[in-house]
Amino acid sequence: MSHASVPAGKYNADNPAPHHFGHHFESAEHEFSSAKQGMWLFMVTEVLMIGAIFVGYLLFRLRFPEAFHEAHKELNVKLGALNTVILIISSATMVLGVTAAQRGNNRRSIGMLITTIFLGGCFCLVKYFEYTHKFHEGIFPGGLYHFEGLTVPHAPLFFSFYFVMTGIHAFHVVVGMCLITWIITRIKRGQISKEFFTPVELVGFYWHFVDLVWIFLFPLLYLLG
Amino acid sequence: MSNSHDNHGHGSHGEGHGHYIIPDATIYKTLGALLVLTGITVGLSFVHLGTWNFVVGMLVAAMKAYLVASIFMNLSHDDKSNSVIFVSGFFFLAIFIGLTAPDFLFRGDIFTEGKQIMLPVKGVSQFKRPWEPTPEIVAHGKAIFMQQCVSCHGPEGKGDGPAAAALVPHPRNFTSADGWGNGRKPSQIFKTLKEGRPGTGMASFATIPAEDRWTLAHYVASLGPNVLKDTPEDLKAAGVDTSKDTLGDTEAPSIPITAAMKILDAETAKDGLKGNIKPGHDDLEGYGERVEARTFNPNL
Fold first, then answer.
1. Angle at B140 between CA B136 and CA B143, to 5 degrees
2. From CA B34, how far away is CA B41, in angstroms rounded?
3. How many Å is the maximal CA-CA distance in chain B?
4. Bigger pLDDT: A93 vs A66
């Protein structure tokens, strides 16, 4: 990528470097739309990966409706709803960060991105409390399950899905926070300008996608028994 | 997205140059809508609408997903091809669900009648005078049928269960009056259930308690084109003392199903079928493990 050639120290968030698009593109617009299309294709693979687990969840839920109904009551709706609100707000701060970068307002963009990371951290913290509480009770996935308060057959299956689905999702949140940190450093190095904001927008997509997955996970796991 | 006046290697897709920048007001409105929809989802979960809870909950989630994708991810102002790409992911997901669910849900020997099949069948019958059919007895017989018989005889008793193709002769079609070796009266069906039909895939179900076997016989008889009844002589021939309310100890003790499986396995091996029967995973109270017909290799 061309930004690697930018000399250190010369450019910063207030004085970004001019962007030179790759020689294999016709124009910066072409470079941008290609990158974006690649990101959408990547997100399709994500849809299918998470979708496979959703299908498994739905089928076993149809097969063992009582077990899934009883097991889902063990989840804390308040914490789940809190995390939903946190993620939705973080999606909004993410867009605000992206649009600020698109307008060339890099200072505001950094502020919004830091807020987004903070909200992502809050999400993980709530998830941490939920997980540790479950572990404390003896609710583990699969064969490790030894919770005495709920001994309905196949209840451990629900929690296997719960831990795998929310675990993969939480992993995506952490990856997203790392990616946002990465674009913040790029902004600070002056590699992002209103002429070139592709990484910011694409990381934004990723973050929204993570939000989108949670939008389905929350009702499926916490609400609809 | 041609950009003829964009040259010299300097990209410029800033404001007013084709790239749509979402106004702050739109972002805040969308955020508000998403929060309201979240509230609706949570609120709805406390209202009991049965299946509709799930449908409405997923619809609200889909609306939220639409808002995020079209506004936050800017698909509404983006190149249409990106929308096509993203939606195609869900299209293939729908195919995935659409093909998997019918396979999974309509495997006759798992569960055919929704919750009914999940009812545990008791090892000892609660019925008195089980040789006299009542709606309760027939219903009980049906519950056993759905667990024990559908894999070969099919959910409607037409002899078209998942394992039927592997069996020669084919399992009996209970809805037809043709070809019944022992006859179609409940006492005759009871005899078949007890002894099996040597030389066919019909094993003995003597491990099912006699009372329950009677309920099963009544259910199978009820599937026929016309329901035949037992005369007092038929019942006497079947070893029933109609002066009593219960069957007593007239029945031979049942054998463990594991032993029955070994016999059946050996028989099928003798008949040229590869004996590869494995015990099922679902325990049925009172019957121990059942034989899962779908572990037959249908190619043999």
1. 145
2. 10
3. 106
4. A93
- For residue A91, the chain B residues in CB contact (below 8 A) are 31, 34, 68, 72
Alpha helices, H only, chain A: 28-63, 65-72, 77-102, 106-137, 155-188, 198-217
CB A19 to CB B110 under 8 A? no
Nearest C-alpha neighbor of B34 from the set A75, A212, A115: A212
A86 contact B CB<8A? no
**Cβ separation of A209 and B85 shorter than 8 Å?**
no
> Cβ of B30 under 8 Å from any chain A Cβ?
yes
- E strands present in chain B: 279-284, 288-291
Look at A1 and B267; give whichever has higher pLDDT: B267
Asked if A214 has any chain B CB less than 8 Å from its own CB, the reply is no
What pLDDT, on a 0 to 100 scale, did the predictor assign at position B261? 61
Mutate to test the interface with A, among B30, B64, B81 (most CBs of A within 10 A): B64
Question: Is residue B35 less than 8 Å (CB to CB) from chain A?
Answer: yes
**Domain-by-domain residue ranges, chain B?**
24-105, 114-295
Q: What ipTM is given for this predicted complex?
A: 0.90
Q: Residues in chain B, how many? A: 300
Does position B150 have pLDDT exceeding 90, yes or no? no
What pLDDT, on a 0 to 100 scale, did the predictor assign at position B8?
39
Instruction: Say if B99 is an interface residue toward chain A (CB within 8 Å).
Output: no
Question: Closest-CA residue in chain B for A25?
Answer: B9
**Domain A24-223: which CATH class?**
mainly alpha
The model's pLDDT over B6-39, given as tens digits with 9 standing for 90+, comes to 333 333 444 444 688 999 999 999 999 999 999 9
- Region B230-253: mean pLDDT is 74
Distance between CA atoms of residues B79 and A87, nearest Å: 27
Nearest CA in chain B to A49: B93
Identify the CATH number of the domain defined by range B114-295.
1.10.760.10
- The residue ranges of every structural domain in chain A are 24-223
Q: Inspect the interface and report whether the beta carbons of A194 and B3 lie closer than 8 Å.
A: no
